[in-house]
Specification:
Strand order of the largest sheet: 5-2-1-6-7-8-9
Number of helices: 7
Helix content: 25-40%
Largest sheet: 7 strands, parallel
Radius of gyration: 18 Å
Shape: globular
Distance between the termini: 57 Å
Length: 257
């Protein structure tokens, strides 16, 4: 008897929001490499799309903060491929801001992108997955900011904390057909984040990390593949920490130069 490989997604359909750059780009590439049909979205058409071999992700221009557009994203995936098996809610982010002076409009936009949009896309995905005999899986990409906020991240941290709790709540409501899990990401080396880590290329920041390196996008992609696979068939409502053990406490660094 031949047992299918648990990370073989041949014939499966995967949607990755924010899948045109950074972490989402590599997540999309990884699912393509595993055989999946992949649809990625972003607000503007990218110069390059995720690809593996002769297979390339399909792009749809989408503002996931818009309810109708988010629902249309899922409709498009089903119209193209006949089903939806995995949603990776990756779109998100925020520049640092001063909580004392930040505008209400900015707060609304950050909460809309990092909390409300994942909920809206997940709702549309769940409606499809509940009608499939084998259901589906949703993975929400979160942040250590939900657990350990830093100065300048009040709005973003609050939204990401909401995403974590939302994941746990939806896991209770949508099981057993749909599993929904959360990944807590730590410091990740991407092109867009390079300037955040200092002029030394992140060397000083790396010394605060037990693993001795920052994560790379493929670390997050591998976690997505696992959570979406049959290997995680009993994993639901989980928060998978992919942050290399976090960071050393400040008092430890102060006494161990």
């Amino acid at each position: 008897m031949t047992i299918p490989h648990p990370l073989d997604f041949s014939g499966r359909t995967v949607v990755v929001t924010g899948g045109t750059k950074g972490i989402g780009f590599v997540v999309a590439e990884s699912f393509l490499a595993a055989g999946a049909n992949v649809l990625v979205c972003g607000r503007s058409t990218p110069d390059t799309l995720p690809a593996h071999g002769d297979r390339t992700a399909v792009f749809r221009a989408t503002d996931v903060r818009d309810h109708a557009d988010a629902a249309a994203l899922i409709d498009d995936a089903v119209a193209r491929y006949g089903r939806l098996d995995v949603l990776v809610n990756n779109a998100g982010g925020s520049p640092d801001t001063d909580a004392a002076t930040v505008s209400p409009r900015f707060v609304e936009k950050i909460v809309a992108l990092n909390l409300l949009a994942p909920f809206t896309v997940a709702q549309a995905a769940n409606a499809v997955m509940q009608q499939q005999s084998d259901g589906g899986a949703i993975v929400n990409i979160g942040s250590v900011s939900a657990h350990d906020p830093q100065p300048g991240t009040a709005t973003y941290s609050a939204a990401k904390a909401g995403l974590l709790v939302l994941t746990k709540a939806l896991a209770l409501e949508w099981a057993p057909k749909v599993r929904i899990n959360h990944i807590t990401t730590g410091l990740i080396r991407t092109e867009s984040a390079a300037s955040v880590y200092g002029d030394d290329g992140g060397a000083a920041v790396t010394r605060t990390l037990p693993m001795g390196r920052m994560a790379v996008p493929s670390d997050i992609a591998d976690a997505c593949l696992f959570l979406a696979s049959t290997q995680a068939s009993y994993v639901n409502g989980a928060d998978l920490a992919v942050h290399g053990g976090g960071e050393y406490p400040a008092r430890y660094l102060a006494t161990h130069p």
